[in-house]
Amino acid sequence: EEEAPAVSGFSFGKRDPRDKAKRLARVLLSDMTMYNADLHESALANGSMKEDFEEKIEKSWKEYVEHVGPEMAEGDGQEFWRAALNDVLAKGEEVF
Predict the structure, then answer these.
(1) Which terminus of the chain, N or C, has fewer Cβ atoms within 10 Å?
(2) pLDDT tens digits, one per residue of 61-75
(3) What is the SS3 assignment for 17?
């Protein structure tokens, strides 16, 4: 009888840092839209997303950097954050 190959590539509690950074960016920005639903709706309608959410984005970015680390944030994390800003906060529009 042949033995089945060992399963590899999955372990509880360990995540690829890039996946963690992508997921965290989306979560932070989803929370931002949820807790500021009225402002979000009016900013989308008025095209004032950057201005209306500037302080909130800055605050969430700092939290993001704390969690993913400066090295990730200054590297690929910037693109993950920008993509999440456009996908989640700007509802798919290229605003950021």
Answers:
(1) N
(2) 999 999 999 999 999
(3) helix
Please count the helices (runs of H) and the strands (runs of E) in the chain: 5, 0
CA distance 77 to 21: 6
pTM more than 0.90: no
CB 81 within 8 A of CB 23: no
Number of domains in the chain: 1
Please report, for residues 17, 22, 24, 56, 81, the alpha-carbon distance to residue 13 in angstroms, rounded to integers and kept in the order given: 12, 17, 15, 30, 23
Asked if the structure places residue 8 within a domain, the reply is no
Q: Distance from CA of residue 26 to its chain's centroid?
A: 3
Residues with Cβ within 8 Å of 24's Cβ and at least 6 positions away in sequence, in order, are 64, 67, 68
Residue 3 has pLDDT above 70, yes or no: no
